Amino acid sequence: MRKLYFLLSALLIASVSIAQVSITYKNNGLLAGDSISSKEINFINPGASGSNQIWDFSKLQLSGKSQTNQICLTPAKVLNGVGDYSVLLTENGNENYYNNTENSLEYMGFTTNEIALVY
Length: 119
Prior knowledge:
This protein starts with a helix and ends with a strand. By secondary structure, it is α+β, with helices and mostly antiparallel strands. The protein has helices at 2-17, 25-28; strands at 35-41, 62-72, 87-91, 94-100, 105-111, 116-118. Strands 1-2-3-4-5-6 form a six-stranded antiparallel sheet, with no helix packed on it. A hairpin with a 4-residue loop joins strand 5 (105-111) and strand 6. The protein is extended, with a radius of gyration of 23 Å. The longest helix has 16 residues, at 2-17.
């Protein structure tokens, strides 16, 4: 009986130690109220293109500008022609419309103060 308990305990420990967390749309999809923060970097030329090239970005420097984008529920401006969007991302006063499903993220269009574009 002791051997059986030991074997079951060993199997349980082994299975838990190799278990992998699964990231799913249900638990990790974009939601209204989420925000995305980013920091701008100063441009550096990466170098030549093509195969067997090594680009070194270890000396990147921040420009000091940062930005926070917000995922909203309702748009400030209506974008005619975009009906089925599920994510509205505001960025510097611009609104970006996306259709986000479990298997895709489709960019539908955007609005600025001067222009509205539907894809």
